[in-house]
Amino acid sequence: MSEEIIIAGFGGQGVLSMGQIICYSGVMQGKEVSWMPSYGPEMRGGTANCTAIISDEQISSPVLTEFDTAIVLNQPSMDKFEDAIKPGGLLIYEENGMTRKPRRKDINICAIAAYDESVKMNNTKVFNMIVIGGFLKVKPIIELENVIKGLEKVLPERYHHLIPLNEEAIHRGMKIIKEAHQAN
Amino acid sequence: MSESNIINPENLVYDKTSVMTDRVLHYCPGCGHGTAHRMLAEAIDDLGIQGDTIGVAPVGCSVLAYYYFDVDMQQAAHGRAPAVATGIKRTMPEKYVFTYQGDGDLAAIGTAETIHACNRGENILIVFINNGIYGMTGGQMAPTTLEGMKSSTSPRGRDIQSMGNPLKITELVAQLPGTYYVTRHSVQKPANARKAKRALKKALEYQKENKGTCLVEIVANCPSGWKMTPAQSNQWMEENMFPFYPLGDIKVPSE
Amino acid sequence: MKELRLMKGNEALAEAAIRAGADAYFGYPITPQSEVIEYLMRENPADRTGMQVLQAESEVAAINMVYGAAGCGKKAMTSSSSPGISLKMEGISYIAGAELPCVVVNVVRAGPGLGTIQPSQSDYFQAVKGGGHGDYKMIVLAPATVQESVDYVRLGFELAFKYRNPVMILSDGIIGQMMEKVELFEQHPRSTEEPEWATVGKKPGKDSVIVTSLQLQSEEQEKVNLKLQAKYREMEKNEVRYETHQCEDAEYLFVAFGSCARITRKAMEMARKKGIKAGLIRPQTLYPFPVKAIHKLAKQVKGIMTVEMNAGQMVEDVRLAARGEAPVEFFGRFGGMIPSPDEIFNAFEQKMIGG
To answer: In angstroms, rounded to a whole number, what is the distance separating the alpha carbons of residues C285 and A157?
Structure first.
């Protein structure tokens, strides 16, 4: 098993921490992982992305040009990474704020209204956990208990009381993700 | 009475401190470095801290100071002595650490290191020998060269318009909250030398109490660089250097 | 029990320094390595081990603080990225000349000049050929993983003290910024030893200790140089480290180091999938360089392809090592660009197999 993921969106959407949580969960499941952020001026300019790789084997390159899965959370990220998905791969996009639908026909596409759901939960900070939930629903590469263990590692102890809320967000994401297109 | 009768331990009135080695100084005849070395060495001796002192030699005439001070010493890159001393003091806080630097080292190429060590209040002693010239490289203009003073790179005298002003860095660092004791002395006469020694001793005592950075400037002559006899150079120093770099305390502890 | 963590390369370097029993770290912020000092300041190792951490006023001051602490026999470290390392080069030359041990980390970014903050390997020459003035060498360790970043800090201090010589860890923006699983070694106590060459205060009845790189007499300075050269020959004999992948039956050889070796390995695997017998050698020490190993493989293969994130630096050492036994080609991306496995493979196919 090897899953190469790009996660991209605006700074502040929790893009980098999503990648870290997926990787830490992978560590808890005994996988090899690597996480590589985009760093530099673009971080300050608004868009951020990170590459997360989960694999049964040693990971050779942490820097990739094509991906099994792209999780895009804004339009510029969709524009940038839609073409970088391997044929038969997966695109997950946040519906809020997208002005253009994906055009690829050779990939699986899922849409998630994670932002709206986070508003319903009265906590937009769990937005990225809802997205993770959606991703894990479509690609159950990590068991939920390992995600929770990962969260325990990532979050400082003083935030551990928020873990049940995050778990709830993951469940909501699993529920609301919709298939938009199946690969031809 | 023969000479051998006179040179006897019981007739000894003034002994060379054991904190100085027996090595012959390489400094030019009449140069102030020798006396300045001795005053610092005697201060270390008086306090009984020879085995607890680590010195830092600069680049400049006193680059070989480690031949003369019989204490553990490190030689630093040009201008970097306060940074080297910081590295020593931070990892050996129980030791007495001093730098011994000339004007080019301390006030030109090492200005940043000087100001920031003083501003952090590193518990070190900075001994600053100011003779207004680059001695080792052969008499070029220094940051402290006086207006109109001739050097090989200001052959018609220092022109303020084009070469800038002489830098009173001692007054400058005295403004910084990190400095505790900042004072200016000279060593051309026994009375002056004794005062300089008292200042150096005081500074080392403050270091024991972790009071912050102490800087002792010694205005000195450079007979070779100034192209004068030793006597002339001392007179010139008193008449020209002292009015611009007045002797005395610049910053003293408030208590 | 082994301690597994997911860590950024830069943070791993910092944690490893604490655990290796470092006495001091002096540094100055520069992207992409500021996490090293940020981590140390956050971690406050003074409480954990007594390790001193100080943000210096400049790169130059930082390396000279390292000199001061190293002169006292302390384990001192600094880190920076390319432009900052250029500033430190004077100090590194002094440290090499005075024969002091220390660890210097360079998380390389692309130059020349201010360049970009993106990853690069364009400081290879500076690291392995000396970098500062005078005839000197640093042992250069090139980590390819976050785990090696951790391991090389400990190894770096060991080698630095074994040879009384600066050791450089040549990381880059990829290794520094990426997160991987690491196994941390246990906390080593800080050393209480006082080496005889260290300025720790003159001992009664013994000569005072002088730390210096100055020798005004040419005859004496030549002796100093000869002594240093003899030491470098010892390093070359004892400290070569490298890793090979599928070299046993290889007909073609890739040579790459650091993060670039990981990407190249993927290209090598692509070649294998296409039935081309390719192998990879990854120098872990860039100085001393695995000359013998590459020479031996050069006799075995039809061609060698060196891949670097620069305009071709290590390739010169590979050619010297191959001594004409096999043609040596080069592929590189630079200016902060990272080669993809595909383009490496394509270049390999075109240059080695024949288009």
So the answer is: 40
A36 interface with C at CB cutoff 8 Å: yes
Q: Which domains occur in chain C, in start order? A: 3-202+226-238 (3.40.50.970), 244-354 (3.40.50.920)
Tens digits of per-residue pLDDT, A141-184?
999 999 999 898 888 899 999 999 999 999 999 999 999 999 98
Contact between C200 and B92 using a beta-carbon 8 Å cutoff: yes
Q: Does C224 touch chain B (CB under 8 A)?
A: no
**Domains parsed from chain A with CATH numbers:** 2-181 (3.40.920.10)
ipTM given for this complex: 0.95
- Picking from C93, C111, C144, the residue whose alpha carbon sits closest to that of residue C30 is C111
pLDDT top residue among B12 and B168: B168
Contact B72 C200 (CB under 8 A): yes
User: Distance between CA A95 and CA C7 in Å, rounded?
Assistant: 32
Kindly tell me whether chain B and chain A come into contact, counting contact as 3+ Cβ pairs under 8 Å. no
- How many helices (H) and strands (E) chain C has is answered by 13, 15
CA C136 to CA C157: how far, in whole Å?
18
Among the listed residues B175, B166, B165, B168, the one whose alpha carbon sits nearest the alpha carbon of residue B213: B175
Residue ranges per structural domain of chain B? 26-251
Superfamily name and number for B26-251: Thiamin diphosphate (ThDP)-binding fold, Pyr/PP domains (3.40.50.970)
Instruction: From B165, B8, A134, B25, select the one nearest A126 (Cα to Cα).
Output: A134
Share of chain C above pLDDT 70, in %: 99
Interface of chain B against chain C, CB under 8 Å? 50-54, 56-57, 63-64, 66, 69-77, 80, 83-92, 95, 112-113, 116
> CB–CB of B86 and C68 under 8 A?
yes
Each residue's pLDDT tens digit, C289-334: 999 999 999 999 999 999 999 999 999 999 999 999 999 999 999 9
